[in-house]
Design brief:
alpha/beta; disordered N terminus
């Protein structure tokens, strides 16, 4: 993109910068600080980007493909402060090799409000176009193949094209209710050789898609509240990565959510979070129909900062409807900060928002 074109793109949109502290104005961080690197400043902030598009959702409540790709690319440009989308992706994956695999962990537990395929495929296509990447080196995944299929994903386990499949083929609710293990004979299953400590004497096993097939991972959650954990965004999205989520719902899912994300296989492989905030659920989640149109995509490299920001968005909707804030339940966000996974301190989060047209 030439300088003239870049300047024109900025001229035709409304853009503003603000911190998560209400009404506070902040100075835009230098590129070297985009991912938390220290350039000699004592007060390093985690950047969260929120890109809106009024045409992200069509009149019949579908995701508009052209608008979502525009949102995805703009999100990456703002997050990295690059002028070219290829340079943006290279900043996120500076060591990417031709043989490396990038997996996208989506959330399809709620077929009425999932990570929308249009958004996930737009992320994948942006990487393919930017890197000249082999599409087969991208894997879209969740806990089950059946949930992915029901929410509109194209299942593909071949050696051609973008791959898409679950850790197991299907999920049995009756077996879940009696805490029985899922049948893994028809799927890749969970890595029993690498149990992780999830707190309170519990252990879990991670999907082999993550441990054995993914060099890097992008977390692609949905904007939803949660009856037990307060919110289910990037951190809790990994309940779809483990084999025993049914065991880990006591005490508002804490410390389990934080401990899962502290596992090296998740912490070290996760390079980016892009949250599908086209629609949102503020009451009764994680299931149920969407309750409002937010028309945006959220992104960060800090999962705690992103979840804190998403929690404020959900709280704002709950306040409009005279509901209690979810903050008291979402104690896993603070725990994740304590475990060194990011920050939930609003004074250390810089939120940059953009409205496209």
């Amino acid at each position: 993109m030439t300088k003239d074109k870049h300047d024109k793109r900025h001229f035709t949109r409304r853009e503003f910068i603000k911190s998560t502290a209400v009404g506070a104005t902040v100075v835009y961080l230098a590129p070297s600080l985009a991912f938390g690197s220290d350039a000699g400043f004592n007060d390093i902030k985690s950047r969260v980007v929120n890109v809106f598009h009024p045409k992200l959702i069509t009149l019949d409540d579908q995701i508009h493909a052209q608008s979502v790709r525009q949102c995805v690319d703009e999100t990456l440009l703002l997050l990295t402060q690059k002028k070219d989308i290829k340079d943006a992706w290279m900043q996120i994956f500076p060591d990417l090799k031709e043989k490396d695999t990038i997996s996208l962990k989506v959330n399809c537990v709620n077929r009425k409000c999932p990570t929308h395929p249009q958004i996930t495929y737009a992320i994948a296509e942006s990487m393919i176009n930017s890197f000249g990447m082999n599409p087969n080196n991208i894997i879209i995944w969740d806990r089950t193949t059946s949930e992915l299929k029901k929410t509109g994903y194209t299942i593909n386990e071949t050696d051609k094209g973008i791959r898409c499949f679950g850790t197991v083929k299907s999920f049995s609710v009756p077996r879940w209710l009696i805490n029985a293990n899922q049948d893994e004979s028809d799927g890749i299953g969970y890595d029993k050789s690498q149990p992780i400590d999830v707190g309170n004497g519990e252990t879990s096993h991670l999907s082999k898609i993550l441990t054995q097939m993914s060099t890097y991972m992008i977390n692609v959650p949905v904007l939803k509240d949660h009856g037990k954990a307060g919110i289910t965004l990037s951190l809790k999205n990994h309940y779809g990565t483990i084999d025993n989520p049914h065991d880990l719902h006591a005490n508002y899912c804490d410390p389990f959510v934080g401990k899962i994300n502290a596992a090296p296989q998740i912490k070290e492989k996760t390079k980016l979070i892009i949250c599908d905030a086209a629609f949102g659920i503020y009451k009764g989640g994680p299931l149920g129909a969407p309750q409002w149109k937010h028309n945006s995509i959220l992104a960060s490299t800090d999962p705690v900062a992103l979840d804190y920001t998403g929690m404020q968005i959900i709280n704002a909707q709950r306040k409009k409807h005279n509901l209690d804030m979810v903050t008291q339940k979402a104690i896993h966000v603070k725990t994740a900060q304590t475990l060194g996974l990011g920050t939930s301190d609003p004074d250390k989060i810089l939120l940059k928002e953009s409205v496209l047209s």
